[in-house]
Structures are given as structure tokens and as C-alpha cells.
Write a structure and sequence with these properties.
Layout (H helix, E strand, L loop, with lengths): L12 E7 L2 E7 L9 H8 L9 E6 L4 E7 L4 E2 L3 H15 L3 E6 L3 E7 L4 E5 L28 E4 L3 E6 L8 H9 L9 E9 L2 E8 L3 E3 L3 H13 L6 E6 L2 E8 L2 E7 L1 E7 L2 H5 L2
Parallel strand pairs: 2-3, 4-6, 10-11, 12-14
Antiparallel strand pairs: 1-2, 1-17, 3-4, 4-5, 6-7, 7-8, 8-16, 9-10, 11-12, 12-13, 14-15, 15-16
Length: 279
């Protein structure tokens, strides 16, 4: 089925960004009309025939701006912390602002701030620790789920399932990740994290993201892992999280969970009419 034939090439510029290798295609709908469906999202996500990304973000008008997220499989995502930081860094550089209020579809209004040395922070909001808010399919103890390994469930806009292990290198993420993502306890599927305590307030973590797979980093997953570690009594509230792509600092404050780290705007591009007409 052909799509988007009515859209001239000039309507489809995009940006490629990443936070610690967690990469995104970003489309600014404030300046250009954007009509997305799951077919187009999946085509763009294809790293061989499209552009390639872990998530796609659409910017629209809002308090300062509004963000809507899609996973690589075309499904919606209610939160994407690294993409939020990347877009916030670009917006603040363009406007000269040092703080932003960002409306996240399905999550509310989040605050972003620009710090020193290129570090961008975003308040990901308060964690959801009650079973019905994660959400889970029925009432269980979110600190020890009835799944082998006794993982912790946390909501950060997206559902998360965090396992604490002694040897992270022994985990086959490609096998375990998809099995837990689709576990019947998670009616909306879940992100899956495996974490190992490195030292006081220091965690090493790997992640399988629902609708995407293994990624080099995940902001909301890092927040969920830090929350789970503190609730388990393993760390304090200010935690360093080392991921495959780099390091994030997670600080659970009274006003929410602040996530800080570097960002990168890699390149700008334009989708060709040939690509759009092929869908």
C-alpha cells in the first residue's frame, strides 16, 4: 500500500540524535506537517533500508514543547528519557533558555535544565510503585515479583522489570529480554533491565526495551533501576548507572527523578519522495 505520495520532500526533514548511543529520529511538527502510521515508523526504524533508531520522537506545540514517542516496532511509548534530554538540549541552545517545561504525551509536564560541560538533565516525574499503576495484571508485591529471580516492577511512564544479578556478563539478554517483555504479568509489555551492584550508589545495567530490543542505553530504564535499587536498600537516592553506551546520573528527589548525562545531535536529513512512495 502506497502512503504519503501527496507530501513533497521538503515536508520531511528530520534530525538524528543520541544519548549514550540510545539513538533517535526526531521530526519537528511545529514547522512541517507530519502524518505518521506504524508502517512508516517501522520503515524509518529499519537500519538497512531506512534511517534506523531505537525510538522516534515528534515535536509539537506545548507549554514550551510537546513530545510524542514511538518504538521501532511502530507502537507508542509514553516516555523516552534520553530523547527528551537530547531534544531539550537542542531547544535550549536555540532559544537561549536554561530550563524548559516539556509536555510528554501520556506522562504530563516534565522539566529540563542545562548544566555545565554539556550535561542536560530532565525530571522524569515520580515513579509508580503500586501494582495497578505500573501497570501489572493483578495485585502482587512490586518489590519481589512472582517471576524467577524476584525482579522489581516500576512505572516511569513505561513499565519496567528490574533483575538484580551477581554477574551481568552471564545474562543472555537476547533470550531473556523478549520472554520477560511479553510476560502475562505485564499487560502493556515491559522494559527489562538486568543490574549489578558495582559499589556504593554505583550500578552497572543492561536493558532490553519493549518494542525495540537491546539498546546501548535507556533513560527511563536507568531511572527505574535506580528506584528499584533504593527500594531494595542497595543504594541511596543519588545513583550512578553505567550502561553499554555510557553513564547517567539518577537522583530521586522530592520533586521527581532527575536524570543527567550528555547528548549528541548527529546530523540533519530529509526523507526522499522515492522512499515515501515505496511504502
Amino acid at each position: 500500500m502506497r502512503r504519503m505520495q501527496q507530501s513533497p520532500i521538503t515536508q520531511w526533514p528530520f534530525m538524528k540524535m543520541h544519548g549514550l548511543g540510545n539513538d533517535f529520529v526526531v521530526v519537528d511538527a511545529r514547522a512541517h506537517d507530519v502524518a505518521l502510521d506504524a508502517v512508516l515508523v517501522r520503515a524509518l526504524a529499519d537500519r538497512h533500508r531506512g534511517v534506523g533508531f531505537d525510538q522516534l520522537a515528534v515535536i509539537s506545540e506545548g507549554t514550551d514543547l510537546t513530545l510524542t514517542f514511538y518504538n521501532a516496532d511502530g507502537s507508542h511509548s509514553a516516555a523516552c528519557g534520553n530523547a527528551t534530554r537530547c531534544i531539550a538540549a537542542r531547544e535550549m541552545a536555540m532559544t537561549g533558555q536554561s530550563r524548559l517545561d516539556i509536555d510528554i504525551t501520556g506522562r504530563g509536564t516534565l522539566q529540563a535544565a542545562q548544566g555545565a560541560d554539556g550535561i542536560t538533565s530532565v525530571n522524569m516525574g515520580h515513579p509508580q510503585t503500586e501494582w495497578q499503576d505500573v501497570p501489572l495484571s493483578h495485585a502482587v508485591d512490586t518489590l519481589a515479583l512472582p517471576i524467577e529471580g524476584g525482579p522489581v516492577a516500576t512505572g516511569m511512564g513505561n513499565p519496567h522489570c528490574t533483575f538484580f544479578v551477581d554477574d551481568l556478563n552471564a545474562v543472555d539478554l537476547n533470550t531473556t529480554g523478549p520472554r520477560i517483555e511479553h510476560h502475562p504479568l505485564f499487560p502493556e509489555r515491559t522494559n527489562v533491565q538486568f543490574a549489578q551492584l558495582v559499589g556504593p550508589d554505583h550500578i552497572r545495567m543492561r536493558v532490553w526495551e519493549r518494542g525495540t530490543g537491546v539498546t546501548l542505553a535507556s533513560g527511563s530504564s536507568s531511572c527505574a533501576t535506580a528506584i528499584a535499587a533504593h527500594r531494595r536498600g542497595l543504594t541511596g537516592r543519588d545513583v550512578r548507572v553505567d550502561l553499554d553506551g555510557g553513564t547517567l546520573q539518577i537522583d530521586w528527589r522530592d520533586d521527581g527523578v532527575w536524570m543527567s548525562g550528555p547528548t549528541a545531535h548527529v546530523f540533519d536529513g530529509t526523507l526522499t519522495q522515492e522512499f515515501l512512495d515505496s511504502l
